[in-house]
Specification:
This protein is 78% helix and 1% strand. By secondary structure, the protein is mainly alpha-helical. Helix 7 packs antiparallel against helix 8 and helix 20 runs parallel beside helix 21. The protein starts with a helix and ends with a helix.
C-alpha cells in the first residue's frame, strides 16, 4: 500500500510537471504571436505602471542639466564664482571645481547602485524605490540651502544615491512586466524620462536666466520637491515584478501581480497569469542550472560573463560617444561665441529635439533590430562629431562657424536620442539573465557612472578658457572614441529583438556568436528544450 501511494505521488508530480512545461510553451507561443495592437489593448495597466514608475528618472535628468547649466548662469557664478576669473576679468568657477560639482552625483550613484542590487534581492522593487524617494526629499535640502561649493558637492553626492536606485529599478521593472513586443518601448521610455527632465530644466533655466540673485539657482532646485510624493504613491500602489516574486517562490502573489498587469476585458490570446508564471519558473530553472547563486560574482562566471560584458560596454558606449557635450551645451555654445540668451535658447531647442528623437525611436524599435539601430546611430554620431570638431577650428570671431557648430550639435542630439540613447535601456535588461538582472544592471550602470566621472572631469578642462580652451574642437576627441565603439559593436553586440528571456538564456548558454543571433534559431532551441523536458517528465 505504501509503495502504491508513493507511485501515485510520483505520477501526480510528473503530471503536474508536464502541465507546467506545457503552460510555459503556451506562454512562449502566445507572446510571439501577439500583435502590437493586441498587446496595447491587453496590457494597458502594465504600460501605465511602468510609465509612472519610470517618471522618477525625470528628477535625475532635470538635475544633471541644472548643475551643468549653472556653470554658465550669472546667478550661480555670482554666488560661487569666487575661485577664479576668466582671461577678460569676468567672474567664473575654476575647471577643478566645475569638474568636482558636476561629477558629485556620479559618486553618489555608484554608492546607490552598489546597494540596490543587494536590497532589491531581499525587499523587492517597491520597497527599495519608496525608501530611496523618502531619502531624496531630505537630500534636496543640501542643494537648496548650500551656499558654498563644498555643500553643493555634498548635495550632489547625496542626491546621487537615490538616483542610483532609480537607474536600476525603473528599466528592470519595465523589462519584466511587459510582453516582448512592448518591452522595447517601455524600457526606452526611461531615456525619454531623462529627456523630459532635461527639457523641463532647460525651460526653468530660461525662465530664471535674467536673475542674478541666489533665487536664480535656488528656484530650480526647489522645483525638485514636486516629484517625490507622487512617486512614493506609485511605489506603494503598483504591483511587484512577477519575476522577483517567482524568484522568491511567491507563486500565488506572482499570479495576482500578473492579473493586475493585464486587462480582464482583452479578447486577445494572451498568456494567462498561470501560464506567465510557468514561463517565469522555467526561465528561473534554466538560470539556476547555469548559475548556482544570484550573487555579484555569478555575473563574471560562464555565459554570464559575456552578458555582463555586453551590458557594461553598451552602457559605457552611451557616454563614450560624446553626450557629455549635451550636459555642457549652454557653456559650449557660449564658448563657441554665442551670447548667453541665445545659448540658453539653443539648449532648450536641443532637448526639444532630444524628446522628438526618442519618440521617433519607437517605430524603429518595432521595425529594426537593436543591433542595427545602435550601430547606425554610432556611425551618424561619428560624422556629426567630426563636423563639429572641424568647424571648431575656425576662429571664435567667425559667427557662421559658431552657428554651424551649434546646428550640428543639434543634429548629433537628434541622432543620439533616436538610437544609442534609448536603445541602451532596451539592450541592457534584455541581455541580462532574470536572476542576475538587477546586479548586471548595477555593474553596467556603475561602469557608465565611472565613465561619466572621467568624461565629466576632462570636458570642463577641454572647454574652460582658463584651461585647455579647445571649445568646439573637443568634438574631435569624442569622434575618435566613437570610432572605437563602432568596432566593438560590430563584433560583440548581439540581436535580442523579439526573444523571450528563456530563449536568450539558451542562445548565450550555447555561445552563439553575436552576428548569428536570430529569432528563428532561438525559437528552435526553446522548442527543443521544451520537447526534451516533456520527454523527461513522462
Amino acid at each position: 500500500m505504501e509503495k502504491l501511494n508513493d507511485d501515485r505521488k510520483t505520477d501526480d508530480y510528473r503530471e503536474g510537471e508536464l502541465k507546467h512545461v506545457e503552460d510555459a510553451q503556451i506562454a512562449t507561443d502566445k507572446e510571439h504571436n501577439l500583435t502590437l495592437v493586441e498587446a496595447l489593448r491587453a496590457y494597458p495597466k502594465a504600460i501605465i505602471w511602468s510609465i509612472l514608475l519610470s517618471s522618477a528618472v525625470i528628477m535625475e535628468g532635470y538635475d544633471t542639466i541644472l548643475i551643468g547649466s549653472f556653470l554658465a548662469s550669472p546667478s550661480f557664478v555670482n554666488t560661487f564664482g569666487n575661485t577664479g576669473s576668466a582671461a577678460d576679468g569676468t567672474l567664473t568657477i575654476t575647471a577643478s571645481w566645475q569638474s568636482a560639482v558636476a561629477n558629485g552625483a556620479y559618486i553618489g550613484e555608484i554608492l546607490g547602485l552598489a546597494v540596490t542590487g543587494i536590497l532589491v534581492d531581499h525587499y523587492g522593487n517597491k520597497a527599495v524605490m519608496t525608501g530611496a524617494t523618502i531619502l531624496m526629499i531630505g537630500f534636496i535640502f543640501f542643494s537648496f540651502f548650500g551656499e558654498s561649493l563644498a555643500l553643493q558637492l555634498v548635495g550632489q553626492i547625496l542626491c546621487g544615491i537615490p538616483w542610483g536606485v532609480y537607474q536600476t529599478v525603473t528599466c528592470v521593472y519595465a523589462s519584466e512586466v511587459l510582453p516582448i513586443n512592448l518591452r522595447g518601448y517601455l524600457t526606452s521610455y526611461v531615456n525619454l524620462c531623462w529627456v523630459i527632465g532635461q527639457f523641463i530644466a532647460s525651460g526653468v533655466l530660461v525662465g530664471v536666466e535674467n536673475r542674478t540673485d541666489v533665487w536664480g539657482w535656488k528656484i530650480p532646485y526647489a522645483i525638485q520637491w514636486v516629484w517625490p510624493l507622487p512617486i512614493i504613491a506609485v511605489c506603494l500602489l503598483c504591483p511587484e515584478s512577477p519575476t522577483w516574486l517567482v524568484k522568491h517562490n511567491k507563486l500565488e502573489q506572482a499570479e495576482r501581480a500578473c492579473a493586475r498587469l493585464q486587462s480582464a476585458s482583452s479578447k486577445a490570446a494572451i498568456p494567462t497569469p498561470r501560464e506567465t508564471v510557468a514561463l517565469l519558473q522555467k526561465t528561473d530553472a534554466i538560470e539556476r542550472e547555469i548559475s548556482g547563486s544570484s550573487s555579484y560574482i555569478e555575473c563574471f562566471r560562464g555565459s554570464n560573463l559575456r552578458r555582463t560584458e555586453i551590458a557594461t560596454a553598451t552602457w559605457t558606449i552611451q557616454q563614450m560617444c560624446g553626450p557629455v557635450l549635451q550636459t555642457f551645451a549652454t557653456y559650449l555654445f557660449i564658448q563657441a561665441g554665442l551670447n548667453s540668451s541665445t545659448a540658453f535658447d539653443m539648449t532648450l531647442g536641443l532637448y526639444a529635439i532630444a524628446f522628438v528623437g526618442t519618440v521617433l525611436s519607437w517605430p524603429m524599435i518595432a521595425r529594426f533590430g537593436r543591433r542595427t539601430i545602435f550601430l547606425a546611430g554610432l556611425v551618424g554620431i561619428f560624422v556629426c562629431l567630426l563636423i563639429v570638431g572641424l568647424v571648431g577650428i575656425a576662429p571664435a570671431s567667425n559667427s557662421s562657424a559658431s552657428w554651424a557648430a551649434g546646428a550640428f550639435l543639434l543634429v548629433f542630439t537628434f541622432i543620439y536620442d533616436s538610437t544609442v540613447g534609448p536603445l541602451t535601456y532596451v539592450i541592457v535588461p534584455e541581455v541580462s539573465s532574470s536572476r542576475l538582472r538587477h546586479k548586471t544592471t548595477v555593474i553596467a550602470r556603475n561602469a557608465y557612472n565611472i565613465t561619466c566621472i572621467w568624461t565629466g572631469v576632462l570636458t570642463p578642462y577641454m572647454l574652460n578658457p582658463t584651461a585647455w580652451n579647445w571649445q568646439a574642437k573637443a568634438a574631435l576627441f569624442w569622434a575618435g572614441i566613437t570610432a572605437l565603439c563602432i568596432v566593438w559593436v560590430w563584433f560583440r553586440l548581439p540581436e535580442t529583438k523579439d526573444m523571450t528571456y528563456a530563449e536568450l538564456d539558451l542562445m548565450f548558454e550555447k555561445g552563439v556568436p553575436a552576428r548569428n543571433f536570430k529569432r528563428a534559431e532561438a525559437q528552435g532551441m526553446a522548442a527543443d528544450m521544451f520537447r526534451e523536458t516533456r520527454r523527461g517528465s513522462l
